[in-house]
Amino acid sequence: MKNKTIFTLIITLIVVFSSCTNDDGLVDSSENAITFQTFNHNGQNREYLFYKPDNLPANSPLVVVMHGYAESPTKYFNDIGFNQIADTAKFAVCYPKAIDLTWDPFSFNSTDLGFVKALTQELQVQHSLNPNKTFATGFSMGGAMSNLLALDENSIFTAVAPVAGYVAKDVWDAKNPQNPIPVFLIHGSDDQVVSIDGYKGGPSVDTLANYYATLNNCTTTNTSQFTTNTNATYHENGTNDSEVWYYRITGHGHVFPGDTDPKAMPYDNSDFNGAEEIWRFFSNVLIGFKPEIAYFAYTKP
Asked: Which of 23, 81, 88, 99 has CB atoms 3.0–4.6 Å from 275's, for a disulfide?
């Protein structure tokens, strides 16, 4: 609770450019009204948004996108771009909502951890989605939730992509993942909310990337300059072709790369679209990181 309170105060003071959009009905590309749906977990009705492209085939992938602290899922539905990618690449997207817009990524006993896992399994059944093609990503506190899912027994999610996320010290000390899991980490060097050097005694992002590479038994590491400001590290040849990608963005603040919100743009030094890169990673997971195999490629309109 202490860590959660401190984190809340830090973000409230620093992320002055963030805004919470109203939880109104939304309109997708097909002009069908999209409203919050409910899922009862442990006797409590929890809310989420769900996007399913027209004529989505059975056994398609599912991507779970978790918002940051004090942000609404509507922001990610509207501003980040996963729905547009889903229309072309053919996957469903779920945007779960935290209670009071605040996740609890500070313990493996977190109610939010159980909620996200249970909701994911319900959507797999309800919409005939493939449990072996199920992914999670999130920003800030949502990124911390992505890490929590990876460091849990991690049998539900195929891969995760935390953006500007962290791992709480208590979680780091108690971690005991049972399975390798591909991970894509994205973080800015100038993030003043969630430091790239670690949050409140938790691991730095560099340490986290190396831990995941060891968990996946990766045997080779390559680096490249992905964009002018982004240094990419690829840990490769892991168990079941698992890989760990890490994009370190020089001069980048606490924003999701490619966020179209005008208030976020001054802090974005990424030179790439985060949603596109995350889907490129997830789609590579599905083909075992074999570039000669075509799979669900996202083609810009």
From this structure: 81
